[in-house]
Amino acid sequence: MKLKLNLAIGVLIVLLTDIYLYAQPNKEILVKGKVVDEKGIILPEIKISVENTKEYTYTDENGEYTLKLSPGNYTITAEPLDEDKISKKIILIDEDIKNLDFKINSRQIEDVVITGTRFTSRTLLDSPTPVDIIDIKKVAGNGAQVSINQILNYVAPSFTSTPQSLGGSTDMTDPASLRGLGPDQVLVLVNGKRRYNSATINVNGTFGKGTVGTDMNAIPVSSIDRIEILRDAAAAQYGSDAVAGVINIILKNTVNKFSASITGGEYLSKNIAQDKTSHDGENVQVNLNYGIPLGKQGGFINFSTTFDKRNSTDRGGIYNGTIYKDFSSGIGIDKTDDFLAATHTTRRDYSLKIGQSKLLSGQIAYNAILPVNPITELYSFGIFGYRNSIASQFYRYPNSANNVNEIYPLGFLPQAEASIYDRSVVVGIKSKISDWKIDISNTYGQNVFNNKTKNTVNASLGSDSPTSFQGGKLKFMQNVFNMDASRELDWLSGVNIAFGGEYRYERYQIIAGEEASYANYGLGKSITNKDGSISIIPDINGNIPIKFAPDGKTPIAGGAQGNAGFSPENATDSHRNSLAGYADLEINFSSSFLINAAARYEYYNDFGNTVNGKIAFRYKILPNLTFRGSGNTGFRAPSLQQRYYSNTSTLYLNGNMYEVGTFTNDSKIAGLLGIPNLKAEKSKSISAGLTSKLGPLHISLDGYFTRVNDRIVYTDLFGGDPNGSTVDQEIYKILQQAGAQKARFFANAINTETKGLDAVISYQTSLGKGKLFIDLAGTISYTQQVGNIHTSELLKGKEKIYFSDASKIYIENAIPNQKFNLSLTYDISKWSFFVRNNYFGGVTEPTYVEYQQFYNPRWITDTSISYKVLKFFKITVGANNLFNIYPEKVAIASNSNNGQFVYSRYVSQFGFNGRYLFSKVNFDF
């Protein structure tokens, strides 16, 4: 009888509760709580979900979360990564606030990897290939770096990117390397979708010469949740460019949370180059982020924006060469001292400005998901940006072939102004058909480079020359359509099958500038008169010099000095499309042993087809010790920029200044020299490593080997001879018509091998009332040319021009072969203390053998202190390069450009601007 009574009362309570809940469907109850570990240490970024709904959120940096729910019965689950879920049931009736805390017995909260695998629950040390996961909020919060490339340079072991100077458009893009390979041999993804390349190509004297990379600095830092770096070849999974690995940038998806940060700083250091205290390079960055819920099924749209303003720096030395020559006697007599006295100027006034360029930048981004029903969602994300940079070029001295004395009696310092426009949009749909997960998307991206030169002249126009020129544009557009399908099966210990296809269309354009930006009005051509006599008439398409410098011998220079524009002969509108299909299989034979295999077929309409494969495995030798490895074949299709770029620009090399023309491989001059058409690079690679997880201690050690055949290089300088063979004379005439003295090309000149070892160790522990985080990461990598230089019969004897000593160094030692960093972070109460020591290995000057100089390794120390003033307000102050360390000085006179290059302009371990002081404020509401 008692049992029946209790049952009746229970049923009545349930019925009354349901009636009550039904009567007030619009009421919202605030569910709040805190998540900590067994020691009471708060756990941020823990997912809190509501069972059988789309409602979820994440704990903030205080380990706290908030949910808004209607009255009802719910199961709330805390989902720490790499740990068991914890669920609690609650009944919400008539309260305004409900408290629900969680305590997790946490060994280590570890991220889930999505790059390099299509299995949805693969964790970091569980992955068969090495992946670094960079928490941007945490890393950017401690350091002075405000761009993606620089953030990664100081935290990712095998990633290298250094600021450039006097590198033209390269000053804005900072070429990046992974595992010592080229900037065009790493594939960049955003939310797993292929990111487009830059429209510009690196044809200046910097690391990555001759390559086209992806401009990650165009992505606003405020939009990024984390970055996953796959340090393993993945062409079979993702296609061309993934020879060295993949960088996948994951955008934020938070809602109902406003975050903002303002970072300001400047270089304040003893400037060894100028023997004075530098106070320059002021920089301010503003980041904003806010997310809005869409619908009631967990949809969202997250907005981000980043604004940057940076001033230039100058670490150049004082020019000690000839500034002014007097030709009145017929020979050039150095009258520099008299000239300086008469003009009341000093040598400093005629010296180069060597350092970072002036920059103004702004980007906005969005990331959105809209569920249509429980199994289907629409998604979209986009990034739009603008950057403007002004960089100084080489000084043009008075009374020279490059100057017009009537306009610039003291000579001039040309300035290259570049404006870069970026836009990209991705739209897609995810759904399920039977047990298959389907993802269909379209990715569009475009990069536009607008070329302008200021404070300059076209010397061949004389006093009629303008002082600024519109030099034309470069445009690169990419559109990618993807369809992917995957399915998880419960065979063995889990099987995942995936397959898909991709269609990619690319378009590359060079748009000519105004005529005066490229034309040489000091050229003419010969015509035969009616009486049979020969006359020379002005003609910008001619090849006979008719205007000369004050010395009476040197032909006057044409085009905009410092940054010549694109001519109609350079203009191109090139297209390419490719079609690909792939299959991916991952088999967990047991909890200890898995194998992943992938194959990809890809067809390009401009060079043909290729088939590539990958196999990777992971085997747990012991519960806390795992052995992993992989073998890959890969490829990189030559970029449209490498195939179709042509232009004439100024190059300073070993004390001499040249006007150098870049010509396409199908040009007449390429045929005369025997330069073949470009073909795809082919690669093979293997890697093997060990991972271990001993409580809070995580260790990974991975070795690798990569062979690249037919690697594309940017050749050295070929020249013609007006008095040489018939071929040399014809080459000389073509160069004259292009306003050039030398010629360069892109060519599949060599094979290379790269060997390396990466190590990552992380540890965290309680220390007193706080928590200590220790991260040690390092890489040792060596790339070298193997085999002979690939020359044609016409190139016999010119191998050192086809692939020069300088080009060899650019590939083998223009970036550090060893890099290590040790980071210590201690959080206690409202304080956070951070210190990082970075080791950058030595590099070599890329030039002729007799001028090669090795620059010794350096240690750089960064530090910061943060204090949380209020729950939503934090202040950080710190220093990058605290002890004001500079690279080793240039010791060989021929590399210094008459004393102006105190530090090498061609290679840089970490930059040469010295100590940087910064402060930062963060708001989180």
TrEMBL record:
Main location: membrane
Keyword flag DNA damage: no
Cellular localization per UniProt: Cell outer membrane
Membrane topology value: Multi-pass membrane protein
Domain TonB-dependent receptor-like beta-barrel, residue spans: 435-882
Family label: Belongs to the TonB-dependent receptor family.
Name of protein: TonB-dependent receptor
GO CC terms: cell outer membrane
Xref: Pfam families: CarbopepD_reg_2 (PF13715), Plug (PF07715), TonB_dep_Rec_b-barrel (PF00593)
InterPro entries per UniProt: Beta-barrel_TonB, Beta-barrel_TonB_sf, CarboxyPept-like_regulatory, Plug_dom, Plug_dom_sf, TonB-dep_rcpt-like
Coiled coil regions, renumbered to chain: none
Keywords for the protein's UniProt record, in alphabetical order: Cell outer membrane, Membrane, Receptor, TonB box, Transmembrane, Transmembrane beta strand, Transport
Organism: Apibacter adventoris
Limits of the TonB-dependent receptor plug domain: 124-246
